[in-house]
Amino acid sequence: MSAAAANPTKPGLEDVVVSPSEICFIDGHKGRLVYRGFDVDGLVAQSTFEEVTYLLWYGRLPTRKEMDAHVKALSSTANRKLPPKLLAMLRLFPKKTTPMEILRTGVSALSAFDPDAEDNSREATLRKSIRLTAQMPTLVAAWDRIRSGKAPVGPNPRLSLAGNFVYMMSGRKPTPLATKTFDVALILHADHEFNASTFAARVTAATLSDLHAAVVSGIGALKGPLHGGANEQVMLMVEKIKDPGKADRWIRQALADKARIMGFGHRVYRVEDPRAKHLKRLALELGRQAGSTAAVEILDIMARVVSAEKHLFPNVDLYSGAAYASMGISTDEFTPIFAMSRVAGWAAHVLEQHGNNRLIRPRSDYTGLTDEKYVPLAQR
Ligand code: CMC
Fold it and tell me: What is the atom index within ligand 1 of the atom nearest the CA of 338?
């Protein structure tokens, strides 16, 4: 009997429950997202990305002393800086290499310099989680500057992870609003249950492979436009529309053409993604500060039409790009920024997977031939 006869296939593994997990809860009907028992709305209002990484990895909020030590570890120059040989390697890549390719390659290369690379104990994986979370923004910022002919800016240990990223990208002291925006964006993207990239990371971890390998798998899966790559595609759409006055017609035509509209729809949410409203608020604030709210106006018009016509609602990727673009961040950096945050979730899931492991190995519904006769090459 085939595997599928005993278990009907579920295309896209829709609604398939793979394993218990204590990290993240999504209520797709109420539009609720919870990390380790804490509603993400409350975390956005009161927490920081650094604290959220602690919460995801250790399963509880830190005490003052634990928080200070954790922030110190995530901020130290030793953990944030890139090995000089890796920086030299970055200078060898063609300037057209996308930031997501550099991130995927750079994270893989970082394992060669990591003292715990082959150690999969919980303690070593926690040390690697801190290092990777601290290094990824440096890698993203360094490539952004190298590809535009500028010298990379070294990390500043006095700045938060969010503020330091803005500083390393621009070389200038970050404004409070820019720091707040990145911090909120990092909190909101930090985890999302068994999404495609986290599942990819867990599949890799379940072979007893290491954190760097799992994160490389995660980055590979995040890159696609149906997942993290959607934020970049949204901005390309906004750039095409340009004028809010043209948005209604443009989006109706796209729907009539049966186009897939990036930034809308979700496998789990049946209502608006709870993360979208926070990013919209920040995008609007940054737009006002930068002197144009046109991008948010265009996105709002699209949201009105798409929800009315298709009953599809904004997801996390709809407004994030508008916020980043107001800060002068290029479109192809949006997905790497997503990864800089999601590494926290990937690490939490690797720790959980290693803590109670079983190989993840599903079956296929084989629809090919079974009794072909082999004809030698000379007789074909
Ligand atoms: N635009 C137009 N139609 C859509 C969209 C969309 N964004 N999303 C779903 N649909 C339609 C789809 O055409 C299909 O219609 P029909 O049944 O008539 O063929 C129906 O809705 C179901 O779509 P599906 O692709 O089977 O749904 P799914 O659960 O497999 O896909 C999704 C979920 C997120 C991939 C999809 O909604 C999509 O492609 N959205 C656009 C890409 C996007 O924004 N991705 C980011 C997701 S959230 C953050 C993240 O994970 O990074």
Answer: 52
One DSSP character per residue, 232-290 reads HHHHHHHHHH-SHHHHHHHHHHHHHTT---TTB--SS-SS--TTHHHHHHHHHHHHHHH
Give the rounded percent of residues in the chain with a pLDDT score beyond 90. Answer: 98
Instruction: Note whether residue 134 is domain-resident.
Output: yes
Looking from the CA of residue 259, the nearest atom of ligand 1 is: 2
Over 80: is that where the pLDDT of 166 sits? yes
Which residue range forms the structural domain that includes residue 94?
A: 20-222+335-355
Whole-number Å distance, alpha carbon 28 to ligand 1 midpoint, is: 15
Output phi, psi for 136, to 5 deg. Answer: -60, -45
266 belongs to the catalytic site: yes
Task: Provide the domain count of the chain.
Answer: 2
Catalytic residue among 266, 278, 349, 354: 266
- For residue 265, the domain's CATH number is 1.10.230.10
Q: Whose CA is nearest to atom 13 of ligand 1?
A: 260
Model confidence pLDDT, tens digit, residues 315-360: 999 999 999 999 999 999 999 999 999 999 999 999 999 999 999 9
pLDDT at 1: 66
59-99 pLDDT, tens digit each? 999 999 999 999 999 999 999 999 999 999 999 999 999 99
Which residue, by CA, sits nearest to atom 50 of ligand 1? 227
Q: How far apart are CA 125 and CA 312, in angstroms?
A: 39
In a domain, 273, yes or no: yes
Q: Residues 288, 350: one domain? A: no
User: 271 and 207: one domain?
Assistant: no
**Quick one: tokens of 196?**
């495609």
Does 263 sit in the ligand 1 pocket, CB within 6 Å? yes
Task: Tell me: pLDDT of 40 over 70.
Answer: yes
pLDDT bucket at 5, cuts 50 / 70 / 90: confident
SS3 166: helix
